[in-house]
């Protein structure tokens, strides 16, 4: 009778030890998450209920910042939110689809050329913001030395140089082009890895059952087999587009951008936080951005998450 009880006691102790060991392994990540995510978010939410100009202690004002944001900040509702939604809903999905298609095409070729091409495609995402803005400002320079203006003038398509980066008509389009150029980052690599790890016997079985072309292969096997990678890619694309506001400022050299044409929520935060030094109001805008990213993330989980 004592032997089974002794065995159960040893088994229970071993289980507790394994649980403690597992918790100790994740403790550093938990502490990092608390230090760099949870606590800053909590501080931001608290700060959004204050008036804080960096010179005086924060003063509690309740929901006044939120009321002002939606009632008196006309630029926010009329220009900045529409700009952000337009930018995110164009650059995000196009960059995501482009990343998937490029990864899918690379998965069809041999290993050595695939590695070289993947590095070439991925490299723009590693470009520092300053270097990127310098390169694109040269291309879209508003004088005759700008590469695009020089090309169009030589082709007699325009009569005078166009101020690409200070003209509100063109700035948003250029921001989207630059974002797409640099959008093949971790999401692209995750999708490429997912494609390369799909069980090839699935394709063989499908062709034996009557599948006849690559399009059917993509929709019936490839996409369903790599939902985790597609979810990761969609979240990375979403976060990147919502946080890409500095592109407009880097290209135009102004914050706010000309007539707010390239002004996004992130640059509105920078404007109030680091130019006007109204940290409480900047924190309020940050909370709204956090809510927007959360809502779109939930949509991505619904589309690509595992179904129960």
Distance between the termini: 44 Å
Given as residue ranges, the uncertain stretches (5+ residues, pLDDT < 50) are: none
Structural class: mainly alpha
Please report the number of helical segments. Answer: 14
* β-sheet strand percentage: under 5%
**What radius of gyration results from the CA coordinates?**
25 Å
Q: What is the domain tally?
A: 2
pLDDT averaged residue by residue = 85
Portion in helices: over 70%
The CATH topology of the largest domain corresponds to: MetI-like fold
| Morphology | flat
- Largest sheet strand order: 1-2
Largest sheet properties: 2 strands, antiparallel
Q: How would you spell out the order of helices and strands?
A: HEEHHHHHHHHHHHHH
Please give the structural blueprint.
Elements: H1 2-47, E1 50-51, E2 59-60, H2 64-71, H3 74-106, H4 111-122, H5 129-139, H6 147-154, H7 168-181, H8 186-196, H9 200-208, H10 214-225, H11 227-242, H12 246-252, H13 265-275, H14 279-304
Antiparallel strand pairs: 1-2
């Amino acid at each position: 009778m004592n032997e089974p009880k002794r065995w159960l006691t040893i088994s229970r102790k071993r289980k507790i030890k394994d649980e403690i060991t597992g918790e100790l392994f994740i403790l550093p990540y938990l502490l990092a998450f608390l230090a760099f995510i949870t606590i800053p978010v909590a501080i931001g939410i608290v700060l959004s209920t204050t008036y804080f100009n960096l010179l005086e202690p924060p003063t509690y004002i309740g929901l006044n910042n939120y009321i002002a944001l939606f009632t008196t900040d006309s630029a926010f509702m009329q220009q900045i939110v529409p700009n952000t939604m337009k930018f995110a809903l164009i650059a995000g999905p196009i960059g995501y689809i482009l990343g998937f298609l490029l990864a899918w095409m690379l998965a069809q070729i041999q290993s050595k050329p695939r590695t070289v091409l993947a590095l070439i495609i991925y490299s723009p995402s590693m470009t520092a913001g300053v270097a990127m803005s310098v390169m694109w400002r040269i291309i879209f320079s508003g004088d005759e030395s700008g590469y695009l203006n020089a090309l169009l003038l030589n082709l007699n398509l325009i009569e005078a140089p166009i101020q690409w980066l200070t003209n509100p008509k063109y700035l948003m389009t250029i921001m989207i082009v630059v974002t797409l150029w640099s959008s093949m980052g971790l999401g692209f690599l995750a999708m490429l890895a997912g494609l390369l790890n799909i069980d090839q016997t699935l394709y063989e079985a499908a062709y034996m059952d009557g599948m006849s072309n690559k399009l059917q292969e993509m929709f019936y096997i490839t996409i369903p087999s790599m939902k985790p990678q597609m979810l990761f890619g969609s979240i990375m694309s979403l976060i990147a587009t919502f946080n890409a506001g500095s592109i407009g400022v880097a290209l135009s050299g102004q914050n706010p951008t000309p007539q707010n044409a390239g002004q996004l929520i992130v640059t509105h935060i920078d404007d109030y936080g680091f130019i006007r030094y109204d940290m409480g109001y900047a924190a309020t805008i940050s909370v709204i951005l956090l809510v927007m990213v959360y809502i779109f993330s939930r949509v991505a989980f619904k589309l690509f998450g595992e179904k129960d």
